[in-house]
Amino acid sequence: MGLAAGLRATVRHVVTDADTAIQAGSGDVPVLATPRLLALAEAACVAALETHLGEGMTSVGTGVALEHRRPSPVGTEIEVEAELTELAGRKLVFGFVARHVRPEDAGPAGGEPGGGPAGGDPDGDADLVVGGGTVERIVVDRAVFLSRAGVPAA
């Protein structure tokens, strides 16, 4: 495995009606649902690992700490950046931060907006932060994991 602290990826997403608390069943307001924010954070973690796990290996989520600080109405573009901050055997810990994308920053995802999950707030982007936290994942052999879960091999 080519895993090392500092691996990162960014996922960008425009909030749609399907992403709202109303649709997720987590509230009755038409803004980004907390479960959707978590799903985007996990997607960023998975993207960071995409080319760094050995053949037949994958990662599965085992824990999360999430703070959802500001609403994101339908039509708002957000980006979620995850960074691998800790490795302990097969356990991986990611820090993540979600931000509203300023219209002037819209375009292909990438770079290190706002200094990344571990990097303070050098650009004065505190007003853009939607939330953040940590995601724990564990590296597993895909076939063994699915077998133990009772999922038939494809």
Write up this protein.
The protein has 154 residues and is an alpha+beta fold. It has a single domain, classed as Thiol Ester Dehydrase, Chain A, CATH 3.10.129.10. It is 18% helix and 35% strand. The protein is built from three helices and five strands. The protein has a five-stranded antiparallel β-sheet with strand order 1-3-4-5-2. The radius of gyration is 16 Å and the shape is globular. It starts with 7 loop residues before the first strand and ends in a 6-residue tail after the last helix.
SSE map:
Blueprint (H helix, E strand, L loop, with lengths): L7 E7 L6 H4 L9 H16 L7 E12 L8 E12 L2 E10 L28 E13 H7 L6
Antiparallel strand pairs: 1-3, 2-5, 3-4, 4-5
CATH topology category name: Thiol Ester Dehydrase, Chain A
- The number of distinct β-strands equals 5
Cα-atom radius of gyration:
16 Å
Major sheet characteristics: 5 strands, antiparallel
CATH H-level name... which superfamily? Hotdog Thioesterase
| Average pLDDT over all residues | 89
CATH architecture annotation name: Roll
- Number of continuous helical runs: 3
The CATH class designation is Alpha Beta
